[in-house]
Amino acid sequence: MARWKLMLLPLVVSLYAILTTVERHLKCNLPSIANLLCQAYEAGEISGPLCPDLCEQKNIQFGNCLTEAMEDKVYEGQWHGRDVIFKANLRWYTDFNTFQKQTDEDVVLSFQDNVSFLVETLFGDCPQCNRLVSLFLSLGDSDNDGIVTAPEVRSLVPLLRQQEPFMLIALNNSKQTADFHGYCGGLYATEKLPLIVSDVFGTQWNFDDFNIVPDTFEPFQEMVKNLIAKIFDAAISIPYFSKIVVNIPTITLNGILDAFFDLRMPNRKKQFEYFHSLLDSVMDLSSNPYGMLQSCDMHLGNFGIANNSVVKVIDFDAVFPVHYLRHVLEQKECVSDADCWFGTKDDCQSSCDTATKKCTSRMQKQDLIHICETHIPFVLKRPCNQEFSKNNSICSKKVVRKFELFCKRLRVVDSLDQLRNDVLAVKKELTHLEKDLSNMC
Ligand SMILES: Nc1ncnc2c1ncn2[C@@H]1O[C@H](COP(=O)(O)OP(=O)(O)OP(=O)(O)O)[C@@H](O)[C@H]1O
Ligand SMILES: *[C@@H]1O[C@H](CO)[C@@H](O)[C@H](O)[C@H]1NC(C)=O
Ligand SMILES: *[C@@H]1O[C@H](CO)[C@@H](O)[C@H](O)[C@H]1NC(C)=O
Ligand SMILES: *[C@@H]1O[C@H](CO)[C@@H](O)[C@H](O)[C@H]1NC(C)=O
Ligand SMILES: *[C@@H]1O[C@H](CO)[C@@H](O)[C@H](O)[C@H]1NC(C)=O
């Protein structure tokens, strides 16, 4: 093993030790949050379809903590023996406390208003919006006894005020979004899926390299492996990661990462299968009854792969209805285009109308364009995805470049029909690309 790799080990280990300690004390306390929720449930203050499982039957087990964020608690775990993801956001408590100050009667009476207001804020006055309101209202009766009580409303409305649970429930019938399994107070459970980044275009740590490490290090190996995998996932899921974080050229970063990992790339046919399913998921997201959607934090880390090779969206923190985005952007004052964005800069960017000093509502790019011109070429151009001879590598770069140019000519669409056409066009181009790669390179 190269010496420089070994020299990095103590650094990584101590970094990880610090991270885990901090994490333990500050962040990874979902089980204790669950305890508090159950106390409130037993006191009759909160409610939700998962509460009996969480607090009485105890058929929920928490596994590992998955997040570094303070606000968000994300755990993997089991529910009725099924692998799921548990999430809770601290904002729920703030909202819940506000509701606690209102009388039971007021809370129940304003339930419908509160739900209609949320739906209208996000989707506007859409033709099927009433259906969505009804869906949420029916969820309100979480114990199915025919009566919506104040604890039921106080549990559900704060949850719906968060982007992710709102979207997960609204889109639960979609084929290409993670399933929503239910909630208890501020804690909710979703389908757990292998991530597209780690399981498909991801990594396998080559541990033979570390055989010379003393046995005492063994407990750390799993930790180091997880940490490196996390860094790698971040790097591969965000093409411009290296520019933002480490300020070294992507090529160099990829070189370093490739030196550390045995890459578990699926064969080319499989990769293209996933690309096609990824494009279908863009179509599926916007094909809901309420209105078109756009992700304002587009990266491959937000996608999982279901058992049948179908790509599903798993992270909705920054997925917004186009109606809402337009409204938010139009309100913004600006001097230049650089002021006109929402979510992650670049992903949801409009332009500045310098005459009115207000942002326009028209997006510069959409999900399909991002995936086409950035994410697919990024995966195909990774060094580990190139054949070994220089000739092949030059050839495939050329072919991928042609595909990128096609993507750069894609327009911003306004309707579902236009989107459907463009998704079909990209899939056709992708098929050409796959053929060219195998015939010419
Ligand atoms: N449905 C799921 N299946 C499998 N893993 C998941 C799922 N949802 C979340 N995760 C894992 O939990 C981690 C934290 O999830 P979270 O939604 O908080 O993402 P995040 O750290 O906020 O990332 P982002 O930058 O995309 O918002 C993710 O990085 C992912 O590895
Ligand atoms: C719910 O609706 C009531 C009455 O319209 C309003 O006073 C209250 O602020 C709303 N609460 C939330 C959280 O939207
Ligand atoms: C969401 O969809 C899944 C799969 O279709 C279903 O099993 C589940 O009950 C639904 N969840 C809710 C809250 O309706
Ligand atoms: C995936 O499918 C296989 C068989 O098709 C099954 O044995 C396995 O349990 C499934 N895994 C999950 C996570 O559903
Ligand atoms: C490299 O490709 C060119 C055509 O693109 C071909 O003429 C040449 O023989 C190839 N060289 C090798 C070593 O394969």
From TrEMBL:
Coiled coil: none annotated. One of its GO terms (cellular component) is endoplasmic reticulum membrane. It is found in: Endoplasmic reticulum membrane. Its main location: endoplasmic reticulum. Keywords: Disulfide bond, Endoplasmic reticulum, Membrane, Signal, Signal-anchor, Transmembrane, Transmembrane helix. It comes from the Eukaryota. It is a single-pass type II membrane protein. SMART domains: PIP49_N (SM01299). Residues 2-139 form the FAM69 N-terminal domain. The keyword Transcription regulation does not apply. Residues 1-17 form the signal peptide. The keyword Transmembrane helix applies. PANTHER family: DIVERGENT PROTEIN KINASE DOMAIN 1C-RELATED, EF-HAND DOMAIN-CONTAINING PROTEIN. Belongs to the DIPK family. This is FAM69 N-terminal domain-containing protein. The lineage of its organism: Eukaryota, Metazoa, Cnidaria, Anthozoa, Hexacorallia.
